[in-house]
Amino acid sequence: MNKDQIQGRVEQVKGAVKQTTGKVIGNKELEAEGRIDKTTGKVQSGFGDVKEKLKDTIDKV
């Protein structure tokens, strides 16, 4: 796993916690912030996944 994969997954968890907390306490702003964090984390971990696959492909050559 590379840095982007780890940070992306941490960001997804952080976003999920914020989103759930926002729903529970009725704070739409916190809920939206959580959705943004989750999405950002998904993009970052996806980028890390692509980097890892590219690295594996290059190592095979």
Instruction: Estimate percent helicity.
Output: over 70%
Shape: rod-shaped
Radius of gyration: 15 Å
Distance between the termini: 20 Å
Look at the helices and sheets and give the structural class: mainly alpha
Number of helices: 2
H-E string: HH
- Low-confidence stretches are none
Strand count:
0
The structural domain count equals 1
Mean pLDDT: 97
Largest sheet: none
What percent of residues are in strands?
under 5%
Question: What layout of secondary structure does this protein have?
Answer:
Layout: H1 3-25, H2 28-60
Helix pairs in contact: 1-2
Notes on the protein architecture:
The chain is 92% helix and 0% strand. The chain has 61 residues and is an all-alpha fold. The protein has one domain (3-60). The longest helix has 33 residues, at 28-60. The chain is rod-shaped.
Output the keywords.
mainly alpha
Kindly summarize this structure in a few lines.
92% of the residues lie in helices and 0% in strands. It is mainly alpha-helical and 61 residues long. It is rod-shaped.
